[in-house]
Amino acid sequence: MRFVATADWQLGMTAHYLGAEARPRYAEARLEAVRRIGAVAAEHDAELVVVAGDVFESNLLDRTILLRAFEALRTFTVPVYLLPGNHDPLDAGSIYTSELFRSQCPPHVHVLDRSGVHEVAPGVELVAAPWPNKNPRVDLVAASIVDLAPPEGVLRILVGHGATDSLNPDATSLATIVEAGLTSALGDSRLHFVVLGDRHSTFEVTDRVWYPGTSEVTARRENAPGNVLVVDLTPTGAQVTPVHVGRWRYLVHRAPLDSDADIDALQAALEAMPDKHRTALWLVLEGTLTVTQKARLDVLLGDQGALFARLGSWERHEDLHVVPDDADFADLGLTGFADDAVSELRALAGADGDADAAEVARNALALLVRLSGAPT
Amino acid sequence: MRIIRMRLKDFRSIEESEVRFDAANITVVEGPNESGKSSIADALAILRLHKDSTNKSVVKNLKPVHRDVGTEIELEAQSGPYHFTYFKRYNSQRSTTLSIHEPVVESFTGDAAHERANAIFDETLDAQLWDALQITQGQSLLQPLLADIEPLKGALESTGEDPGSSGGGGLLNRVADERLRYFTETTGKPKGDYAAAINEVERLEGEVTRLTDDVDKADRLATQFARNGKDLLEKKVAQVDKAEQVADLEARSGALGDLRSAFEVAELTLAKAEVIAEAAASAATVRTTLVDELDAARVSRDSAAGQLAVLTTDLQPHIDRYESSVVTLGEIKAVVLAAAEASRLAADHLSRAMAVTDLASVVDRLQRADAARSEVQDLVTYLDTHSIDETVISEMAAAQLALTTAASRRDAVAPRLTVEQLGAEQVTVDGVVVDGSAQRSVVADTLVEVGGIVRVRVVPGDDAAGGSSDVADAEEKYAALLRQHHVGSLEAAQSASAERSFQSARLAEVRVELASALGDSSHEALMQQHATLLARVGSLPPVADDDTGDAQAADEVAEAAEVALETAVAEASAAQVEVDIAREARDAATQGSLRATQQAEMQRVWHDDLERRLTLARKRQGDDDVEARRVALLTELGVAVAGVDARRTALASADADMLEAELTNARGSLARLTTDVSDIEASQNQLLGQLEATGANGLQDEFDAATADLEDARRLLMSTTARARAARLLHATLSAHHSEAQRRYVAPFKQAIEALGATVFGKGFTVAVGPALTIDSRTLDGKTLPFDQLSGGTREQLAILGRLACAQLVDPAEGAPLVIDDAFGYADDDRLLAMSQVFNLVGQTAQIIILTCYPRRFQDIGNAHTVRLT
Q1: ∠ CA B756-B757-B758 to the nearest 5 degrees?
Q2: Rg (Cα) of chain B, in Å, rounded?
Q3: Cβ within 8 Å, pair B687-A20
Q4: Model ipTM over 0.90
Q5: Residue in A with minimal Cα distance to B736
Q6: Model-level pTM greater than 0.80?
Q7: pLDDT digit string (tens) for A35-49?
Q8: Nearest-10 crossing angle of helices B490-518, B257-385
Q9: Which of A30, A61, A337 to mutate to test the interface with B (most CBs of B within 10 A)?
Q10: How far apart (Å, rounded) are the C-alpha atoms in residues A136 and A60?
Q11: Three-state SS sequence of B74-98
């Protein structure tokens, strides 16, 4: 039996760290990724698609996202099973119980809106652990399998959402999924495969317990986003194949900057990057530049910034210093009072103590360079 | 640049003229108007600016009139390292040559010559300096534009500093513009994009806060819904349980029905027995009360009747006393009336007696007054007709004495005539026959005649005549007095005067008598009094015929009558008091009697009514029967009470109350649960509606969009703030240094002007020099005036001093000749001399060319070389 496992579509998510121009493209990209999942299912002759939670970013979305999601899901040729997760729980305001969902949902799309076993095809059962609200205070997965007995001639796939106890940084969370229970259930064939959502990077917990991760990257820290899993399942084992469907990239680029040559290198690296319009880049710049070089860097980043979905420094990690250098001002031919002013500002810029005042002074010097008409 | 030689040919009216400037630093070119002085300045400009091929009118106009020849300009000069001769011919046979003699000999022609010359000028001559040092005709009052002259700036920088260096002035403007992009000029508050970015961040922060609240609210709604759902489920389960409990209790309650029926019958029987027994007891009480009331009414009735009898008896003495007192009062009132009449009569009597007495007195006084008045009238008449009094006597005696005196005086001066009759002849004096002799004083013409013999007229002298006249006057006066008073002589007059005195004394006496008779009254008043008294006596009849009108007696009688009247009135008053007291006593007794009568009647009626009612009641049922019924029914009630108690005990033992209470409570609980379920369901529906609406509105989208916008706005604000602060700091720093540099830069130029100007204006001379190196004001001996308000002469001198300072400061190798075309038209001789000294000083290092048609103005410049044009 073959099926496609995916999770964390986060439809309707707004990437606030992107530029205003890129945001609608990014939102559309998440829907495009859904379409590609349908294509992957068809391509691999999968029987069904399970989505392990967080199909939607929130229950409070404008309902038009449903229409667009259904439009994408209509391209699927196999049944699709949606699990409510912590972002879109089955609470009273759930998007899954809204009038629009009920009336517009395509017939091959199903919501796993009940904890426990759902027979989805002859010989195939899904065990669902939907989130009833945002704060369940219980291991929903364990609750969903507590009464299960080993089935006869049926393959059981558990679809759950949340962090397992080996992954969850918050070990005290009551909703943490206890891995031992899953291992036990897999061991005595009450279950045959476990698909989990919540972790956005593709992750193999055990050979039959997987996080597919999000289908399109959502955050810089994700190390393996943009994948779905094509799972070939037998009563005795599973063959899991990640397939990349994401198109966007969130990258961190480190660059030492101490000279014009370093700036040249950065420029070359930026220019060489493919698909800039689908790439968000966090720069970690380290080094010391002159005012003139800094001005040049600013121009470079300004120009390239227009090409990328996002281009900016990762300020928390940046360690770039600007030190006014004699060469900065030699070419300007400044004499007299302007020269005196430069001296004062340079002293201010290099002064220990008030970092903020030094920063303002450096900016003032850069502005002076710019207004003096020097080449940058 | 330094001009060595200048040659012009066929230049306007000049056929050919060459001027050399190398004899001294200062060259004064003299010549009358139109001798071509200004042409030298013009030619320098034309040679430098225009190619020989030009057709511009300024060049074409150089051609001499009526001659078709080319205009030639030749300049030999030293500029920087170059020593060269530059020649151009314009308009005809055009040609340009440049021969460079130093540092390397070179030669150029045509445009190449023009270009090379321009290159030399550009390299070695500052165009602005050149322009600044040319003073053309009529421009000498204007200050040159010195601020941007590089050689001057270089010179000033060597001592001071240039605030506009390296385009610094422009830079400052650009920086100021940059600052103005972010801050208002005066208050320095954020504006434009900067202000907008700040406002946008604030707005979005508010928006995000609001939306965060809204999202939280939606979460709370969902949580509330879930909690309600749990409650609802519990309540519904409880509802089912409670319904079962109610059904069970109702079944148990049904089994107790029979027992409860018997109890209810007993309760009804008891209730009935209670009512009947109560009625019998009430009837017995009513009867007893009626009997008691009748007894009491009888006693009251008899008592009231007795009281009435006593009061009726007591009433008569009060009535008798009152009537008796009324009679007594009537008698006393009659006595009073009689006494009053007697008193009135006595008073009348007294009054008449007094009037009679008064009348007699008045009659007496009137008689005396009338007599006196008559005599007074007679005496007054006498005195009016006899006017001779002591005064008249004195007057007459004086007139008589005057007559006697006048006669004596006349006689004393009159001649004495003595006639003695000597013969028989009748002798007469004034017709009077003289008998013997006659002697007389001649006081008037006297005629002595002897009949027929002689007539002697004796005429007295003037003295004698005068004396006679005085005597006549005195006689006349005296006689007039006697005539006036109708007396013949003084003696007679004296007798009359004595009589008048006597009568006058009598008049006084009689008037005293009259006043005495009248007293304080006038005669008329006395007459009126008399008439009044007469009438009064007439009106009061005499008491008796023998009434003498004795007032004393009448007075005594009247007094006795008054005393009798007062006594009678006092008695009447006492009698009246007695009447009032008796009346009040009688009235009080009457009232008491009336009340007693009413009371007796009321008691009688009440008694009769009770008696009637009791009689009727006894007719229906005797007193004994009433009591017997009461006792019998009381016994029946006791039996009924016992019956109820017995059945209640039976019910209680069956725990019916507890069962009922349980059932009632169970029913209440069920109803409450039903209500709760209904309420919660309604609340859930409402919550669902709210949640559906909240979800459908896309709250999360709004929140995400606002958050993203806020991040954008914050990034924009951060970068804008950085730029704004940089611009502000840069502007502040540059401005501060600019101001400081300006102050330093201007100083050497100012010093140069003041050093030169001290010669012209004296030691108290200073100037204020602006950033553009213009003289803004002059201070002389502590008095400061702006440049524009100075006199024409002073302005011209200051403007030229500025140029001289410039020429002096500029490095000679970079300098240009100071060319002055016709100046100092405003200067007096002292100033001219002083300026000449300044020229001489500056001329030690700088080339100065002065073009003038007034040679005298510059004759005092010591080291000048003079060239005369004709």
Answers
A1: 95
A2: 85
A3: no
A4: no
A5: A341
A6: no
A7: 999 999 999 999 999
A8: 160
A9: A337
A10: 19
A11: EEEEEECCEEEEEEEEECCCCEEEE
